[in-house]
């Protein structure tokens, strides 16, 4: 994924969260996220995007309706760099997602974790926290997604729909969709060891408090796929 804050490489956990991963991959292939903004930032907590309206009240899934949550006992909100679905309630996932900027344990079993920010691109996450934050956690000058590129597709059967990138469906214009900008708890604004060592090292270098304890979270193995995000 290419963003105005830098490149973000996302490793997907398609076995643990197949619905969320398929949805994310297809939307990336279709250019759905291109030129959209990260409309919500809570420093030390989350940065949220994926809404073509840029308001926190838009977005649609590839399934034609909201899809169900996918919780996994080994995937917990204990550190920086996790990728998860934003929602307005249980089983109400669409296109919006967020990156964690630190531990968010109150979100466990409320939001589907479907991947992580990989490699050195983890160092770009703090850039989302820079700058002034206005009303409703909206950045005064929000960062944006320039384009997305799927480097390794775990779903070879996906056929991108004939859509114009970021075109807002007519039905979405007509009806006001309930927003997902307020999380239920955010109203106030085999590779495990190697994986965790990498994250802890990167987090220490960043100087944040988003490190995870290997004993508390295990990264799933043998299911990693990569989506490369490019920034503006």
UniProtKB/TrEMBL annotation:
Residues passing through the membrane, by range: none
GO cellular component: catalytic step 2 spliceosome
Location of region: Disordered: 203-232
Keyword Signal assigned: no
Annotated Polar residues bias: 223-232
Annotated localization: Nucleus
Keywords recorded for this protein, A-Z: Isomerase, Nucleus, Rotamase
Pfam families membership: Pro_isomerase (PF00160)
Alphabetized Gene3D superfamilies for the sequence: Cyclophilin-like
Main location: nucleus
GO terms of biological process kind: protein folding
Domain PPIase cyclophilin-type: 1-150
Known catalytic reactions: [protein]-peptidylproline (omega=180) = [protein]-peptidylproline (omega=0)
Enzyme Commission number: 5.2.1.8
Matching InterPro entries: Cyclophilin-like_dom_sf (IPR029000), Cyclophilin-type_PPIase_CS (IPR020892), Cyclophilin-type_PPIase_dom (IPR002130), Cyclophilin_A-like (IPR044666)
Superkingdom field: Eukaryota
Sample GO molecular function, one term: peptidyl-prolyl cis-trans isomerase activity
Protein role: PPIases accelerate the folding of proteins. It catalyzes the cis-trans isomerization of proline imidic peptide bonds in oligopeptides.
Family listed: Belongs to the cyclophilin-type PPIase family.
Assembly mode: Part of the activated spliceosome B/catalytic step 1 spliceosome, one of the forms of the spliceosome which has a well-formed active site but still cannot catalyze the branching reaction and is composed at least of 52 proteins, the U2, U5 and U6 snRNAs and the pre-mRNA. Recruited during early steps of activated spliceosome B maturation, it is probably one of the first proteins released from this complex as he matures to the spliceosome C complex. Component of the minor spliceosome, which splices U12-type introns.
Name of protein: Peptidyl-prolyl cis-trans isomerase
């Amino acid at each position: 994924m290419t963003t105005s804050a830098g490149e973000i490489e996302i490793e997907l956990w398609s076995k643990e969260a197949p619905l969320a991963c398929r949805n994310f991959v297809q939307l990336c292939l279709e250019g759905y996220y291109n030129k959209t903004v990260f409309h919500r930032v809570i420093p030390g907590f989350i940065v949220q995007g994926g809404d073509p309206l840029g308001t926190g009240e838009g977005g649609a899934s590839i399934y034609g309706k909201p899809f169900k949550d996918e919780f996994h006992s080994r995937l917990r909100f204990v550190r920086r760099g996790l990728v998860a679905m934003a929602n307005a309630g249980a089983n109400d996932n669409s296109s919006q997602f967020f990156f964690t900027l630190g531990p968010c344990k109150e979100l466990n079993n409320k939001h589907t974790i479907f991947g992580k920010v990989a490699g050195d691109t983890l160092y770009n996450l703090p850039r989302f926290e820079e700058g002034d934050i206005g009303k409703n956690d909206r950045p005064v000058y929000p960062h944006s997604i320039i384009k997305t590129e799927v480097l390794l597709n775990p779903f070879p059967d996906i056929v991108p729909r004939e859509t114009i990138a970021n075109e807002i469906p007519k039905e979405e214009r007509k009806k006001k969709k309930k927003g997902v900008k307020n999380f239920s708890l955010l109203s106030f604004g085999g590779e495990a060891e190697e994986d965790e060592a990498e994250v802890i090292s990167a987090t220490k270098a960043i100087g944040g408090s988003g490190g995870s304890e290997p004993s508390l979270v295990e990264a799933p193995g043998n299911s990693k796929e990569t989506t490369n995000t490019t920034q503006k």
